[in-house]
Amino acid sequence: MSRTAGQIIKCKAAVAWEAGKPLVIEEVEVAPPQAMEVRLKILYTSLCHTDVYFWEAKGQTPVFPRIFGHEAGGIVESVGEGVTDLSPGDHVLPVFTGECKDCAHCKSEESNMCSLLRINTDRGVMINDGKSRFSINGKPIFHFVGTSTFSEYTVVHVGCVAKINPEAPLDKVCVLSCGISTGLGATLNVAKPPKGSTVAVFGLGAVGLAAAEGARIAGASRIIGIDVNPKRFNEAKKFGVTEFVNPKDYDKPVQEVLSEITDGGVDRSIECTGNVDAMISAFECVHDGWGVAVLVGVPHKDAAFKTHPMNFLSERTLKGTFFGNYKPRSDLPSVVEKYMNKELELEKFITHEVSFTEINKAFDYMLQGDSLRCIIRMDA
């Protein structure tokens, strides 16, 4: 790969020209990395619901034409000035948020919300010079959350790249660069359920199932899945879910149902829907005295969380988390090792696989509710 260092690379990328329209495989030019940037050869990428959400652009700022994609695994092709901890040939996971290692957040043991590199969904350019590294016939194509992995090559800030074990299969561990780590970390790093505890998981999509996987790893004795789609219940058993509650089956708030079946409330709850009513239920269903609720889902911008202050005064705890409280560069390598040591099972999250030319099928699978994660093979 050294022969391409410092040169423009022409490659294939799936370009979203406008909101909600099928992606188009185009030949794009990818500029060399600038200071504190790396250029990656993407080998595998997967589709996350966040890609679909911003591709539809129903409630967000439309930034087009754009190259989406942010869950991926690849190899470093070349590095820009000032990059010292990555070299060509390194196996890596690009991440939608970063770790500059210099700001107050990065220096804090309690935070992973880097001041410089935290997610920015509206920015379509690199922070170094405010320009895109992608172009077609001289016209810029915008980036997405600093990663843009629906391209055979992409340029990413070094702080958003985690170097991992080169023995790890990239077609499996690529799913750790967003949703799976978010749910897993919400349980293991934030909720921290004691062994033998009862855990409720609201929302049984990929993130919620990853939260359930975390509860399984932690040794929870009961893992209760809450979802309005009964089709998800059978799949959830693979992730350690032992019981299911469909709020539609009851004429009372689901938090009351959970309190009744757990003798006063669950020990921990993790909310993975983004629905504010589910968030309130997740908090109010935890046991007084020691219950902890963790919010993962992103709510509507106008949503308001309302609960009685006595729910706090009776010693329930409400927490929020971003990317499962993992620092991308420092912590993701150890999550990969959990998979390598067979503590974490990733295969069961991967429900579909398509070639790069069939990338629109991945969108269809997700829109139809048929997939958890669809792996897109860039070389096929």
TrEMBL record:
Question: So what family is this one in?
Answer: Belongs to the zinc-containing alcohol dehydrogenase family.
One GO MF term, please? alcohol dehydrogenase (NAD+) activity
Q: Which organism is it from?
A: Dendrobium catenatum
Q: What is this protein called?
A: Alcohol dehydrogenase 1
Any one GO biological process: formaldehyde catabolic process
Q: How does the annotation summarize its subunit structure?
A: Homodimer.
Is the keyword Glycosyltransferase in the record? no
Please write the reaction equations for the catalytic activity of this protein: a primary alcohol + NAD(+) = an aldehyde + NADH + H(+); a secondary alcohol + NAD(+) = a ketone + NADH + H(+)
The coenzyme or cofactor needed here is:
Zn(2+)
The Alcohol dehydrogenase-like N-terminal domain covers which part of the protein? 36-164
Q: What is the lineage of its organism?
A: Eukaryota, Viridiplantae, Streptophyta, Embryophyta, Tracheophyta
Instruction: Give the domain of life.
Output: Eukaryota
* Class in the EC hierarchy, top level: oxidoreductase
InterPro entries assigned to the protein according to its UniProt record, in alphabetical order:
ADH-like_C, ADH-like_N, ADH_Zn_CS, GroES-like_sf, NAD(P)-bd_dom_sf
Could you confirm whether the keyword Metal-binding appears in this record? Answer: yes
Which keywords annotate this record? Cytoplasm, Metal-binding, NAD, Oxidoreductase, Zinc
